[in-house]
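Homework help board

Subject: predicted structure for assignment chain

Our instructor gave us this sequence and asked us to write out the predicted structure in token form, then describe one feature. I got the tokens but I'm not sure how to describe them. Can anyone check?
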Amino acid sequence: MRAAVQHEIGQEKLEVLDDIEAVGFGPGRVRIRVRATGLCHSDLSAMNGVLPQPAPFVPGHEGAGEVVEVGEGVTDVKAGDRVVVCWLPACGVCPACKRGQTELCLAGFMNAGTPNFRRPGGDVFGFAGTGTFAEEVVVDAGCAVPIPDDVPFDIAALIGCGVTTGLGAALNTADVEAGSSVAVIGCGGVGISAIQGARLKGAAEIVAVDPVASRREAALRFGATQAVSPNELPDARQRITAGEGFDYVFEVVGRSATARTAYENTRRGGTLVVVGAGAMDDFLQLNMFELFFDEKRILPSMYGGGDVLRSYERTVALWRAGRIDLEGLITHRVPLAEINEALDQMRTGTALRTCIEL
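My token output:
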């Protein structure tokens, strides 16, 4: 079968090969024919080494498709079912799951160290234990979440990561208060989803901050009340909050510099929500006096900060009701053979989300 492979960390281009085999099928496992997968910035971060990932590997973790076969003991799905790939499944028995913090379950991360694929040259890993830039993938049964028949594969793929992460940051982690002021720094697919979440919660002012003009324009269509470049943020803060700072600031880039900017633009007593996935050696510096004196809440948001399965269901319900726009997030569609063009679209900010059709 075909898959896009990263041979070494740091390479900027993927190689599409047709000698890949999905491995690991057996009890408790599911084989999925991938039909659509989104390109998420985390895939780029794994490729360039910001996020830890053994190589060679198949990127991709935001996918949807059809179940081909199920292993012994699998009862929640069957062959022919339509599913979204959940890259962070909950085991249901660990302390985090028992506390209701299923997004902190480490079971899914344990899969990342086991090869998902094989080719004549040896084993190949799948990013985040999945690897959806492939025609087929074998995953634990908990990674295959059934979706209703009326949800297209491309929409389902987005729900698998970016939309769940951004919406959840606003709805679950921040629990944005109606009438509040919000700034979102970084307006790709996840940031746009956070904007839609803030709008759903009734935020009065939502300022989108991004250096790319096309993304700023898109943010206005999805619910932002204003859109500014980073160097225009101080003026927006002054106009909207009289210089006090925003009630909520979402950092959706994953860099200490933007997190520091987000902190400085959060009002005293306000909330900074860290959504972007950054590097382990990129440190955010805060002094002890400002932490004490400003009383700003710093809330990291992992995968939307809530129960993943409930978040999927909520997103589908909101989409059906027309309360959120998911189709509009997909700005580009390419076949797997053009994956490197899609990577360039992501790097330049041209795309909000590119759908890879398999």
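Reply (TA_rk): Your tokens look well-formed. For the description, you could write something like this. The chain has a mean pLDDT of 95. That's the kind of observation they're looking for.
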